[in-house]
């Protein structure tokens, strides 16, 4: 049944995108100067996404990608279906600007495996990146999880079934730099049996506004290309004999609560070290700070899939 839903979704999206692409190109031919201005509060980036799986078989690939970074308080138009600046500040407990890194929808289709919110604190006359919010969407189901992390370095128990070739065990180690001319994000997967077996990185550079005068054409079919890469390499993994893993909702309906429990255990483990006598002690924190952290579960918010996966 899911395969039928997937095929119907692909056909429907293809027809919509083809129709809107024709409309877009006709508008540009009729009025070439009608391209929308790219606001100074939006930065455009170009670069690559790289994936490497080392076990149980080796498989790696990279593809070109384009992203936009929106100042959520200043940009005139921002993609819908994301957090607002005020919502992100409440989650991150920050008081400064919030920027959203994402692939904007193109001709009626959206595909964002990962969007990031950069949350700044105002300290005197400077803006310091304090926290990031990850917004992870799985393909093809369209479920989404949002969680807070420290961009300097953080580890979160895996909260979402992002691939039919990965189980729910293990954790994501994630780092990100403050977005400037160069922007990067690195994620590695730590698994109890496979070890550090998967790495994904995004590395992009800011693009001159003059090069991309028309954002609609700059991002034309970008989400579609990302989807094609995802499906093509899923097929290649299946062809290499990697086991297909069913969505956990079929055999473990409480998988989200289980993910929160694993993350709480992970945070407790990371908050303590062992002294010379082998007893647990706080690493670089007072016992009160560690107790507060252990009682403060990570804020993970899930959104169920939309039709046809609901």
Question: Which features would summarize this protein structure in a list?
Answer:
310 residues; alpha+beta; 11-stranded antiparallel beta sheet; two-stranded antiparallel sheet; 6 helices; 33% strand; OLC1v1008643C1; DUF1365
Largest beta sheet, briefly?
A: 11 strands, antiparallel
The tally of strands reads: 13
**Which of globular, elongated, flat, extended, rod-shaped describes the shape?**
globular
User: How far apart, in Å, are the first and last alpha carbons?
Assistant: 12 Å
Q: Helical percent range?
A: 25-40%
What is the C-alpha radius of gyration, as a whole number of Å? 21 Å
- Counting H and I runs of at least 4 residues, what is the number of helices? 6
Average pLDDT confidence is 84
With strands numbered from the N-terminus, the spatial order across the biggest sheet is 7-8-9-10-1-2-3-4-5-6-13
Derived structural class: alpha+beta
The tally of structural domains comes to 1
In N-to-C order, the SSE pattern is HEEHEEEEEEEEHHHEEHE
Unreliable residue runs: 274-295
Percentage of β-strand residues: 25-35%
InterPro entries: DUF1365
Protein name: OLC1v1008643C1
Give a description of the structure:
This protein has helices at about 1-30, 85-90, 215-220, 220-240, 255-270, 285-295; strands spanning about 40-55, 60-70, 100, 115-125, 125-135, 145-150, 155, 170-175, 180-190, 195-205, 270-275, 280, 300-305. It has about 300 residues and is α+β, with helices and mostly antiparallel strands. The chain has one domain (about 35-270, about 300-305). The strands form two sheets. It has an eleven-stranded antiparallel sheet with strand order 7-8-9-10-1-2-3-4-5-6-13. Strand 11 (about 270-275) and strand 12 form a beta hairpin.
């Amino acid at each position: 049944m899911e395969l039928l839903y997937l095929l119907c979704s692909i056909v429907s999206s293809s027809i919509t995108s083809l129709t809107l692409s024709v409309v877009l190109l006709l508008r540009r031919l009729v009025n070439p100067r009608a391209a929308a201005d790219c606001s100074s509060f939006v930065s455009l980036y170009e670069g690559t996404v790289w994936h490497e799986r080392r076990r149980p078989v080796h498989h790696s690939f990279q593809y070109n990608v384009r992203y936009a970074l929106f100042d959520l308080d200043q940009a005139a138009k921002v993609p819908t279906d994301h957090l607002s600046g005020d919502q992100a500040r409440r989650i991150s407990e920050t008081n400064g600007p919030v920027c959203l890194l994402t692939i904007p929808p193109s001709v009626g289709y959206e595909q964002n495996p990962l969007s990031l919110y950069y949350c700044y604190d105002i300290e005197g006359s400077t803006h310091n990146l304090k926290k990031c919010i990850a917004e992870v969407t799985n393909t093809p189901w369209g479920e989404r999880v949002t969680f807070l992390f420290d961009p300097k370095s953080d580890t979160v128990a895996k909260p979402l079934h992002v691939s039919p070739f990965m189980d729910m065990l293990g954790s994501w180690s994630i780092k990100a730099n403050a977005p400037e001319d160069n922007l990067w994000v690195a994620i590695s997967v730590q698994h109890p049996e496979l070890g550090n077996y998967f790495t994904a990185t995004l590395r992009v550079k800011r693009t001159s506004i003059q090069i991309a005068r028309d954002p609609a054409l700059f991002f034309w079919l970008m989400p579609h290309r990302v989807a094609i890469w995802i499906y093509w390499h899923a097929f290649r993994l299946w062809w290499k004999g990697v086991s297909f893993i069913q969505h956990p909702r079929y055999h473990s309906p409480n998988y989200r609560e289980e993910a929160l429990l694993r993350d709480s255990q992970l945070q407790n483990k990371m908050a303590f070290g062992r002294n010379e006598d082998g007893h647990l002690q706080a690493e670089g924190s007072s016992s009160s700070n560690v107790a507060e952290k252990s009682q403060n579960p990570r804020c993970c918010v899930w959104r169920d899939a939309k039709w046809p996966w609901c």
